[in-house]
Design a protein that fits this description.
- The chain is α+β, with helices and mostly antiparallel strands and 258 residues long.
- 44% of the residues lie in helices and 13% in strands.
- It has eight helices and seven strands; from the N terminus they run αβααββαααββααββ.
- The longest helix is centred in the middle third of the chain and has 31 residues.
- It is globular, with a radius of gyration of 19 Å.
Length: 258
């Protein structure tokens, strides 16, 4: 699923920051490229060109500008990702600075407020705040009525749509016998680094709505390029949060493996 349209001729929402030195039409193009890097990165320049219907040379010019500004980075494709012979193609993705331009407003204020909440009510107060926050995002979504693959898959799409509307740039993708919720942006990533309860509450909400055990594979708060949650399309008994293994990092937001 994609995000709301907002760039004429591209079908992408212009959410990236635009430099005042870039002409208006160029700014729209760059914003569309930034949005695609956010949603699908790492991605090749050729794939971006095909997706947006732009000339490869123009796409590479924008990518070079983003790299020069520290907003994107490039790396060579892994051998298994290479199609055909020749030198592996470069793949591009946003850096933390590039994602930061999409909005981390009021991080300092939010962090201070949650710390104060913890001093007053302890960790449980922070956890309850996190749970209420997620409930506002998924408000109106009913838990699955039956545990069949089509029903679970449709519910995953509904959840991703709600998180996309809340600014998480969420999409879904089929992987083997399951489906993954991919949150390509986190509006509260900097705060979630300090308060993993925010990530844990999201995971609990996914479990409750889907009626199955889900597995957090990666999080932006832990330094990954997206928050990825795997959902099996065959019902698996829910495992209480307290029984989840530690992620091996300070922020144990439900991440089990990469």
């Amino acid at each position: 699923m994609g995000l709301r349209t907002g760039v004429e001729g591209t079908g992408r929402k212009a959410t990236g920051a635009r430099s005042s030195a870039v002409p208006a039409h160029e700014g729209q193009t760059r914003a569309a490229i930034v949005q695609l890097l956010l949603e699908q990165g790492p991605i090749t320049a050729t794939a971006i060109s095909a997706e947006l219907g732009l000339a490869p040379a123009g796409v590479r010019r924008h990518l070079d500008a983003l790299i020069d500004a520290g907003q994107a980075r490039a790396s060579r494709s892994a051998p298994w990702q290479q199609k055909g012979r020749g030198r592996p193609a470069k793949q591009y993705q946003l850096t933390a600075a590039g994602r930061g331009n999409l909005g981390h407003a009021y991080d300092d204020l939010a962090g201070a407020a949650i710390r104060q909440l913890g001093e007053i009510g302890g960790d449980e107060a922070i956890s309850e705040f996190a749970r209420k926050r997620v409930r506002t995002i998924v408000d109106g979504i009913e838990p699955v009525a039956e545990h069949t693959a089509p029903v679970i898959e449709a519910k995953v799409e509904e959840i991703a749509e709600a998180f996309a509307d809340a600014g998480f740039a969420a999409t879904t993708r089929q992987v083997g016998a399951g489906v993954q919720i991919c949150q390509h942006h986190c509006p509260v990533a900097h705060v979630a680094e300090e308060f993993p309860q925010l990530c844990a509450a999201e995971l609990d909400a996914f479990r409750d709505l889907l009626g199955t055990h889900v597995q957090r594979l990666a999080t932006i708060a832990n330094g990954d390029c997206a928050c990825t949650t795997h959902v099996p399309l065959v019902a698996v008994p829910k495992i209480p949060s307290a029984a989840q293994p530690a992620a091996g990092r300070t922020n144990d937001s439900g991440r089990s493996a990469e």
